Structures are given as structure tokens and as C-alpha cells.
UniProtKB/TrEMBL annotation:
Interacts with DPP4 (via extracellular domain). Interacts with PLG (via Kringle 4 domain); the interaction stimulates PLG activation when in complex with DPP4. It comes from Panthera leo (Lion). InterPro entries: A/AMP_deam_AS, A_deaminase, A_deaminase_dom, Ado/ade_deaminase, Metal_Hydrolase. GO terms for molecular function: 2'-deoxyadenosine deaminase activity; adenosine deaminase activity; zinc ion binding. The keyword Membrane applies. Its main location: other. Its cofactor is Zn(2+). The keyword Cell membrane applies. It is a peripheral membrane protein. CDD domains: ADA. This is Adenosine deaminase. Transmembrane segments: none annotated. Residues 10-349 form the Adenosine deaminase domain.
Length: 363
């Protein structure tokens, strides 16, 4: 018996990692092709090893990438394929617009020994990675009818990469790239941001590059404050611990800051303790600006439907709230205004609502 979809209308997704959204079959294929050992011989076994089925910690979650990233990283063919297949995956989930993020440097690296894969020099340059991902996304957009844009990630543990990341954002901003992000372990920085990240975000502001930041997932509300006040972020990835600082939360809600919420991810990474009210319930109650997202569906063994069912069944979400949050996601997307308006009109029509112009609304 198939489950009734929680929300079967067009959706927008703003927070998903390309390297966390790969088909296990593709990982197996390139493991064999490149002669890189994997801990399983079938897609089902590999999925079980890579994925999580109970709450853990964010570092444990991030360690899952070590199983399979060496198989993909550094391979032009593999990177283009995962980008193309990503768009196909989103089309099947009813997504009409998605912003997918990744670290060009992590996907450039391919050597496993003798140093960790994420610190090695690979077969591709970060610039080449962005060009290849763009090709895969654009071909997927053409074949599957999903509008796709990308976000390039700086990594908290590698501040020396960040200036190159913002330069790649500038170079490719008319070829799918719409923004810069800061990802990785929030706790690694201590109480201050590395200068490399700050300098990169200052350049992003100067150059008109949109900005989002992973903050307040497991880090404190102070990390969110730094993201907003120092990095001048326009959206916050996760942001759950913002609610620990009522004054900050009130301010950001007043400023209409967008929270990229990933409910199922927050459960399995331990970012949200399931014996407490999920922060997204407060956001819903306050009619705040947020979206629902999958984060890393390969590791979380999920689809976007997982997050919608979770919020519908356990948190009282209704179809009207799903419509509202998707409209907010579209409004908070990093598309140019004319493309954003077209996306909103598509959603309004699908939702049986008057268009922006008919309702006398502005973006």
C-alpha cells in the first residue's frame, strides 16, 4: 500500500548538498571503475553502511562522507553524472526549483592515501569542478524540467580555500552559481571566525554575490549572530539555536531572515532533541520565513517526502502551511527578480492562488 503524499504540489528546495545526494548505484559503479575499495558489494548494503538510522552527533554524521567521497572526487565523469542524476532525483520528488550546494575543493580531491582525501590534491582543480557540475546540472535541467541553481561552499576547517570560492562564485554567476555558503563543523572555529571566511564574505558583499551560512545547527545562537552581523548572510542554514536567544530570534524574524530548515536531518544528527519541541514548530506558529529541505538524503536515507511527512504527522503541518513555506522559499531564493517572479507565478497557479500581480503584491 503506497503512502499518500504529504504535499503533492510543486515544491522549492533551498538546502541540499550535492555530495550528500548521490545514488548508491553510482558510487558502486565508480568504485569498481576507479579501483577504489568500498565496504559493500550491493547498493542496498552500501546504503545501509553509509546511512544513519538513529540519532548521533554532527561529527559522526560528517564522517559518513569518508566512505564514498574518494570514489567520486577528482573524476570529471563521476562529478558530471552525480549532478545530472541529482536533477532527475528532484524531478521525481515534485521539485520545480532547487538550489544545490557543494564544496568545489572537496570534489576536486581524489587521493585517499597517505593523507585524508579532503586534504589531498586531486585530479581536477576547483574551477574545473564547478564547470563540470554546471554542465551536469544544465543538462539535467534541460532533460527533466527542473530549474536548478548552485551554491559554492567554503569549509570551516579550510579558511584558506574561501577567497578562491568567492572568485569562483563571481566567475560562474551566470552559469548556475547564485551564492556562497559556509559549511562544516560550526564548533571548529571556537568563539571567532577565521579571517579567510570573513574576507571572502566581504568580497561577496562587494561583488553582489548572495550569501547563506550554516549556523545554529549545533552551534550557539552566537554563531548565528556572527553569520548575520559579520558575514552579512541573507539566509541561515538550519538556525535552530537562534531560538535560544529570544532577542536575536525576534530581530531576525522582524528582518524576515529565511531559515533553511531540515527536520529529518536535525533528528538524526542530534541537532534537535526529540523530547523537545522542534524549532520549526515555533517558526510555523510565528509565521516566520522558512523552508523544508532534505540536507543530505543519501546519508539520511530520505527524500523530501520524508520531511513533509514528519512535519505533517508529528507537528500538525497543513497543506496551507506547506503552500506558505514554499512561497517563502521562492521569495527567498537567490534567483534574479524576473526569474523569481516567474517561479512564484508557477506556484500560485499550481496552488490555486492569485498571482503576485492579481493580488497587488510585490516581491
Amino acid at each position: 500500500m503506497t503512502q499518500t503524499p504529504a504535499f503533492d504540489k510543486p515544491k522549492v528546495e533551498l538546502h541540499i548538498h550535492l555530495d550528500g545526494a548521490i545514488k548508491p548505484e553510482t558510487i558502486l559503479y565508480y568504485g569498481k571503475k576507479r579501483g577504489i575499495a568500498l565496504p559493500a558489494d550491493t547498493a542496498e548494503e552500501l546504503q545501509d553502511i553509509i546511512s544513519m538510522d538513529k540519532p548521533t552527533s554532527l561529527p559522526d554524521f560528517l564522517a559518513k562522507f569518508d566512505y564514498y567521497m574518494p570514489v567520486i572526487a577528482g573524476s570529471r565523469e563521476a562529478i558530471k553524472r552525480i549532478a545530472y542524476e541529482f536533477v532527475e532525483m528532484k524531478a521525481k520528488e515534485g521539485v520545480v526549483y532547487v538550489e544545490v550546494r557543494y564544496s568545489p575543493h572537496l570534489l576536486a580531491n581524489s587521493k585517499v592515501e597517505p593523507i585524508p582525501w579532503d586534504q589531498a590534491e586531486g585530479d581536477l582543480t576547483p574551477d574545473e569542478v564547478v564547470a563540470v557540475v554546471n554542465q551536469g546540472l544544465q543538462e539535467g535541467e534541460r532533460d527533466f524540467g527542473v530549474k536548478v541553481r548552485s551554491i559554492l561552499c567554503c569549509m570551516r576547517h579550510q579558511p584558506n580555500w574561501s577567497l578562491e570560492v568567492v572568485e569562483l562564485c563571481k566567475k560562474y554567476q551566470h552559469q548556475t552559481v547564485v551564492a556562497i555558503d559556509l559549511a562544516g563543523d560550526e564548533t571548529i572555529q571556537g568563539s571567532s571566525l577565521f579571517p579567510g571566511h570573513v574576507n571572502a564574505y566581504e568580497e561577496a558583499v562587494r561583488s553582489g554575490i548572495h550569501r547563506t551560512v550554516h549556523a545554529g545547527e549545533v552551534g550557539s545562537a552566537e554563531v548565528v549572530r556572527q553569520a548575520v552581523d559579520t558575514l552579512k548572510t541573507e539566509r541561515v542554514g538550519h538556525g535552530y539555536h537562534t531560538l535560544d536567544d529570544e532577542a536575536l530570534y525576534t530581530r531576525l524574524r522582524r528582518e524576515n531572515l529565511h531559515f533553511e530548515v531540515c527536520p529529518w536531518s536535525s533528528y538524526l544528527t542530534g541537532a534537535w532533541k526529540s523530547d523537545t519541541e522542534h524549532p520549526v514548530v515555533r517558526l510555523k506558529r510565528d509565521q516566520a520565513n522558512y523552508s523544508l529541505n532534505t540536507d543530505d538524503p543519501l546519508i539520511l536515507k530520505s527524500t523530501l517526502e520524508t520531511d513533509y511527512q514528519m512535519t505533517k504527522q508529528n507537528m500538525g503541518f497543513t497543506e496551507e502551511e506547506f503552500k506558505r513555506l514554499n512561497i517563502n522559499a521562492a521569495k527567498s531564493s537567490f534567483l534574479p527578480e524576473d526569474e523569481k517572479r516567474k517561479l512564484l507565478d508557477l506556484l500560485y497557479k499550481a496552488y490555486g492562488m492569485p498571482s503576485l500581480a492579481a493580488a497587488g503584491q510585490r516581491l
